[in-house]
Please model this.
Amino acid sequence: MMDSKEILKLILPEYLVEHFNITKVEELNSRLDIYFEEKNDYGHQLPDRQLVSKGFYPMTTIEDFPLRGKSVKLH
Model:
């Protein structure tokens, strides 16, 4: 049986599933809003360098393909 992460990769872009956590999902009439927060776990990619966070850009909303007849907004 597939775990929930593998199922999410079938629905959402794989990059989102790997590098972001879902923080909130709202179902509003004919729209589905999914909110993400970027994971802060890039240290293993460059173990010999110290990474310093400089913050994040303002939130962006992306309109994704419809899911079960509802428009999908990724935040």
